[in-house]
Amino acid sequence: MSELNQLITEQLSLFIMGFAFVIILLAIVLIVQGTKIRKMRRRYEAMMTGNGVEDLENLLIDLKNQGDMLEEGQHEHKAMIEAAQAKIRGMKSKVSLKRYNAFGERGNDLSFSLAILDDNRNGIVLTSLHNRENSYIYSKPLENGESPYSLSPEEKEVIALALQQS
């Protein structure tokens, strides 16, 4: 033990300088950490002022509630858009018209066929046959681009023209 005491007394100045160095190093780390904490506290106080919230937990809960409400609104909007798209697909938006002379020499191009279809190829074909004495109008329903009634070449042509529209 006396040898250890002798070693410590001989190297006492080195021990003191080593401990002083460690203390100075720890003091520097303490100052740096204190500065960082002050900056963080200033940012936290700046964030929390003016919104009536006293702590971060309440702020996060409020933000979560707002996010949930926005998500519900988004789901409602998505459902409305999907309903509108389905309704638009069912609207009769493909229209084609062809005028022609149905009776050759005895008339003008006063006869016509009109096709009105939706995106599902459902709709009607209206045909008007006109001559000097009479005028006839026919309506034929269409499902998937086909009719249960026989179609004239002009009617088939206006259906094809309507289906070509985008």
Question: Overview of this structure, please?
Answer:
By secondary structure, the protein is of the alpha+beta class. The protein has helices at 2-10, 12-48, 56-89, 153-164, and strands at 94-100, 111-117, 123-130, 135-142. Strands 1-2-3-4 form a 4-stranded antiparallel beta sheet, with helices on one face. The longest helix has 37 residues, at 12-48. It is rod-shaped, with a radius of gyration of 44 Å. The relative contact order is 0.08. The model has no long low-confidence stretch (mean pLDDT 87).
- CA(first)-CA(last) distance: 102 Å
Shape: rod-shaped
Please state the CA-atom Rg, rounded to the nearest Å: 44 Å
Largest sheet: 4 strands, antiparallel
Helix count from the secondary structure assignment: 4
